Amino acid sequence: MKLIAPTVALHDSWLRAWEEWGTLDQDGAATHWARDLDLRDPADFATWVERLNSDVVPEGYVADSNFWMVEGDEYLGAIQLRHTINSPALAELYGHIGYGVRPSARGRGLAREALREVLTVAYDLGLHRVLLCCRVDNAASISVIRACGGVLEHVRPVDEFARSHGVTTPMCQFWLETAS
Ligand SMILES: CC(C)(COP(=O)(O)OP(=O)(O)OC[C@H]1O[C@@H](n2cnc3c(N)ncnc32)[C@H](O)[C@@H]1OP(=O)(O)O)[C@@H](O)C(=O)NCCC(=O)NCCS
């Protein structure tokens, strides 16, 4: 598996992965940048890819780095590193890093491999510790985070703030050292 910058070359494979997910709501994939687009359309897909690779930070967001997990010309998943935490939502519900693996590629350790690599990217950006947030019932993700050295700091109960962001399950807050 390789981590690469998002590319239009994987459009067909990305569409097959979308079918597997059955939803545009795919962790780590930053599909919120595509809400006004039809990703089946090559031109719209190219616009989304351009947004993912852009250094321009839209109002209300923080700078981020987006990577795709690929094997050959097959898209397997996505991982996003947010360079700063500047809001209660990032600090308490989302953290620095999000990721997702397409259903047919799960169970092969890909997320663990991707997270390890992105921790080195974070280190190179000057982040010596990163926050990862994960639902208490997400056993696979908790296992990935622990395998990468995550230390559970707090389990955040559901409250009005969480609900206002659509979060209805307690969230584990893990901190990970980025230097190995
Ligand atoms: C979480 C996710 C990224 C894990 O990716 P993955 O590449 O499939 O991870 P793995 O298959 O290597 O699984 C990691 C570990 O979880 C375990 N695991 C997988 N599914 C599990 C389950 N349903 N219950 C318990 N453990 C599970 C695996 O056995 C493995 O354990 P090990 O490290 O002890 O061998 C993937 O399941 C996914 O995309 N889920 C939907 C999106 C998501 O939840 N993203 C994370 C948000 S915090």
UniProtKB/TrEMBL annotation:
Which residue range or ranges hold the N-acetyltransferase domain?
A: 19-176
- Which InterPro entries does this UniProt record tie to the protein? Acyl_CoA_acyltransferase, GNAT_dom
Which SUPFAM superfamilies does the UniProt record give? Answer: Acyl-CoA N-acyltransferases (Nat)
Q: What is this protein called?
A: GNAT family N-acetyltransferase
- What species is this protein from? Corynebacterium nasicanis
- What is the phylogenetic placement of the source species in the record? Bacteria, Bacillati, Actinomycetota, Actinomycetes, Mycobacteriales
